[in-house]
Amino acid sequence: MLAIRTEGLTRNYGSLCAVDHLDLAISQGELFAFLGPNGAGKTTTIRVLAGLIRPTAGAAFVDGLEVSRNLLQVKARVGVVPERSNLYSELSLRDNLIFIGKLYGLPRSQWRPRADELLEEYGLAGRADSPFGALSAGMKRRLTIAAALVHRPSILFLDEPTPGLDVQSARSLRAAIGALRARGVTIFLTTHLIAEAERLCDRVGIIVEGKLIALDTPAALCAQCQGESALELVIPSPTETLLSALRRSAQITSLSHAGDSLHLSVRSVDSALRDVVMITQQYGARIEAIHTANPSLEDAFVQLTGIAVEALQSSKTPNTRGSRG
Amino acid sequence: MMLAQLKRAWHITVKDMRTYYLKPPLISWGMLFPALMVLAFYLRDPSDIRAVVPGLIGMTALFGATSMEAVVIAFEKRIGAMERLLMAPVSPAALVVGKAASGALFGTATGCLVWAVSSLVWGLPLAVGGVVLTVLLGSVTFSLLGVLVSLLVREVFDAMTLSNFFRFPMVFLCGVFAPLAAMTPALRVVASALPLTYTVDALRHLLLDGTGAYFSFGVDMGISAVFAIVLYLAALKLMYDRLEDLI
Questions:
Q1: What is the pTM of this model?
Q2: Do A65 and A172 share a structural domain?
């Protein structure tokens, strides 16, 4: 049975079409990622599916229920982790979870035990009586996820769960998402982090300007990068002029880098290698390591969307206000 | 279903009281301002203070009920907490009730406190049931007015400004300081369109044996109830219209 289905789902904000005739079918227990730049329509899709906003056209179904006709029933079945960690600063962690339990109609006998169970599970038991406002960003994010699970939803929506977190917090969040999936919870997450989508998800949908342009498993999307290969280089402190020169090479279709590590999508390894060696020598740079790699989801994303990976990463900065993404 | 929604509304009320009811706007506008007004009137003419006690109770309930209620939705929208409430299976009707009830309870509590102190100090009648019912009904109306204001604006400061735009004229036009009979006919027409008028008028019946009252007690309570129903429906309509703006 399908957990989530949309048929021609469209949502406009005035003259802007945020989601454009979206057709999706997500199975129960699936971990699905919506990948796209800021403003692509990811958050809008989650908001329609969670019953927070109404579609302009088309229909959305959650657990077989049409969302706009069964708002309260749908809200009772899903958990939503919004982009903002928006619990109550003045209330303690435990009281926040107890309040959420009350809103979802949990029996009184379960309010505190369920809150304590989640605090334990998410490593927050030691801070149970601290006010939410006093937590670090990572802890706030963990409690926001815990709050979405108080009523044991069968479907969980996560809107950009990891931006703004330190490496350890992001890693523990990914572990928590994996544990939920193992329990059979259907997870629909939006992200602009390609590695996150590739590592976590069964299937990935790529959305740009409201349109779904690809939908498949990460492996199948990578396989679509026919004729593409990849090179991984280590160049100490690469300069912007060097990176620009490499990008201008006709053999290199995309380039991304993190510190000294460069990832290049290339048309032909032989020709690209010659270009890379020539350009690095020309700019006085030194190649410390080089190896070929299979096309990644990043390569597939660039090929399918024509959007540079850097543009995708920089389009999203951790924020405190909501957005119509 | 309806009972479940009412329970959720009550949980929102309790949470709002715990979260917001020791915040500076409520202390300054909901408690200090009415207390200073009582003191000012007492110092001006201690012998005449009994005559303005019904007005002071009504005014205290007005400021107590609206001071937080007028800003709370705008504030929660700004911090993202309205989205949190809208994500939960809570109907807009329950949301309006939950939000308005906290203001109404606070207005009732502060209004009744002024009445209790006045009764002890100046020997006013202890018509407990009637006064509590009158102040509660008035506070429900004022709190719903606060919810309306909060839904109409985008920012907290706008809510404060807009709420004072109707609160201060009401204080001077609703028989708080002078009975309606002493007003010009044109001002009486304006006063009859404002909910505080009927709360103060009803309290004149209960505490001053009808001295200075203009309408009958039944009319006061009936029109207050009509105000409460109309304002609830208006707040609910606005809540439905603005649901997506609250996220």
A1: 0.81
A2: yes
Chain B contact for A56 (CB, 8 A cutoff): no
Q: Are strands A16-27 and A2-13 parallel, antiparallel or unpaired?
A: antiparallel
Contact with chain B for residue A54, Cβ under 8 A: yes
Q: Which residue of B has its CA nearest to A96?
A: B15
CA distance B10 to chain A (A): 10
Q: What confidence tens digit (pLDDT) does each residue in B117-132 have?
A: 888 888 777 777 889 9
The partner residue sitting opposite B88, judged by closest CB among A89, A104, A321, is A104
Query: What CATH number does residue A76 fall under?
Result: 3.40.50.300
Which DSSP state fits A55?
-
Q: How large is the ipTM?
A: 0.86
Nearest one of B70, B242, B63, B236 to B156, comparing CA atoms:
B70
Q: Which residues of A touch B18 (CB under 8 A)?
A: 90-91, 95
A314 located within any domain = no
Residue with tokens 């937590």: A135
Both A193 and A264 in one domain: the answer is: no
Residue A64 lies in a domain: yes
CA distance B150 to B161: 11
Residues A265 and A203 in one domain: no
Comparing CA positions, the residue from A24, A115, A170, A86 lying closest to residue B85 is A86
Residue A143's domain comprises 2-221
Query: Does A65 touch chain B if contact means CB atoms closer than 8 Å?
Result: no
At A181-223, the pLDDT tens digits run 888 899 999 887 787 778 888 899 988 888 998 888 888 887 7
